Amino acid sequence: MASNSLQLASLSTNAIIRTAMASPPLALIALRNLPSKSHFPKTFCTFTPSRILPRQPPSPTHPFRPRRFTSKNTLTPFFETSTPKGDLPSLTSTWRPPPETSLDDRPVLIIGAGTIGRRIALIWASNARPVVLYDISDDALRSATEYLTDNLGAYCAARGTHPGHVCTTSKLRVATTTGRYDSDSSPSSRSDAEDIEIHSGSKGPWLAIECLPENLDLKMDVLSTFEHYLPRDCVIASNSSSLMTSEMVSRNELHFSERLLNTHYFIPPRNRMVEVMSSTKTLPEIFPFLEKQMKRMGLTPMIVPRGVQSDGFIFNRIWAACKRETLAVLAEGVASPGDVDALFRDFFHAEKGPCERMDEVGLDTVARVQGHNLEKRPEAKGREGLEWLKKNYVTKKKLGEKTGDGLFTREEREGLRERHRLDRFKEVEETQGA
């Protein structure tokens, strides 16, 4: 009887060992999700939702499991021309909308931390969603971090939402794999590649928005580099204010034209309209999916009818004519920037006139866009005003808000801000009195 008991115990022990070997504990695999920043000195986190909201358990749609490695160069810098060998497969009929439950874990990637990029990052991070802000310039990332620190909390308070996790980085592979890095993580001896692999449980961004200067060659170079690292279900959008994605597709240099489209933001978060236009090859199912997600962020998408291509989209075609004549009036000495804007405020009851708005965007960007418009529409006059802007402001680095002085000086702009504040206060008083 004793020997039978020993035999049964031995069999039970062997069965337990076999079961354990067949199904190893998840605790070891779960270490993949531990945050680390020790090997990412240029990666910064400005907001962590776990400090505001209770930490949520991992989504059941994203089980922890080992990833397959490919022969990609993990250290390819941003503008290096070398890319992983081999063509990417066609994705014509394989795109499916990412599950709604995964979007709270997967970040939105913003490529370019300039004036507009950081503002778009604020919008997408305003509903407890993770965001990765990528730029090769440390100064741009530092400035963007300051902007988000000063504005994200207040914007979320106004909307009644919670700020999401915002990660700023200058590393390409970090930007395209995850957005979950904790600022107070402990040191680690892992290599960059190992760290990236450990953090790639989020499956990378579900939306990537390019916010680069208005230069088609630059945009093509950057997007063709990123396409080798972004997930295959990632929607890729260009924020270009004048370049149509159909121009990018026509070069036949990109493999993801079915997921590429224009999403032109204005100056968020104040302006929440977004012009959305197809690349002529964009899959039709992307539009309702993206429209739904934008509305969740408080944005108002305006979709250009499918099959219609408009250089300058909707608003910019009208705005270009206004800028062109404004610059001509200034170049000829007919009026000062203050005079022009005063007329707009009085006649159109506009909060800001064209000169102040051009200073906000950046006069270098204005010059590039106006130059592009003149190339596309040579019959439109305005070359003299553009050359005047370049000579007196762009070449002297007087670019508007981003440098301090522009069409208005820093001091004049402070006075305008005070005027706007008083005007808004006056409107509130009049409304209450009514």
UniProtKB/TrEMBL annotation:
Residues 80-95 have a biased composition (Polar residues). Residues 108-304 form the 3-hydroxyacyl-CoA dehydrogenase NAD binding domain. One of its GO terms (biological process) is fatty acid metabolic process. This is Mitochondrial of Hydroxyacyl-coenzyme A dehydrogenase. GO terms for molecular function: NAD+ binding; oxidoreductase activity, acting on the CH-OH group of donors, NAD or NADP as acceptor. Keywords: Oxidoreductase. Residues 312-408 form the 3-hydroxyacyl-CoA dehydrogenase C-terminal domain. The keyword Transferase does not apply. It holds the Pfam family 3HCDH. It comes from Podospora australis. Residues 80-99, 177-197 are annotated as: Disordered.
